[in-house]
Amino acid sequence: MIIPVILCGGAGTRLWPVSRRDAPKPFLPLVGGDWTFALTLARLAGDPQFGPPVVVAGAAHRHLVEATLSRAGTAATMLVEPAPRDTAAAIAAAATFLADRDPGAMLLVLPADHVIRDAAGFSGTVRSALAAAEGGRIVVFGVRPARPAVDFGYIKAGEPIGAGAARAVEAFAEKPDADRAAALVAAGYLWNSGMFLMRAETARAEIGKHADAVAAAARDAVATASADDHALRLAEAFLAAPAVSFDRAVMEKTALAAVVEAGFDWSDIGTWSAVWEAATKDDGGNVTVGDAVLLDTRDSYVSTARPKVGVVGVADAVVVAGDDAVLVTTRANADKVKELVAVIEATPEAMFGDFAHHYRPWGHYQSLEVGTTHQVKRIVVNPGHRLSLQKHAHRAEHWTVVAGTAEITVGTDVSALETKTVRLGEHVYIPKSVLHRLANRGTTPMALIEVQVGDYLGEDDIVRYEDDYGRVVG
Question: If I label 426, which of 56, 221, 379, 413 is the partner at 20 to 30 A Cα–Cα?
Answer without folding.
Answer: 413
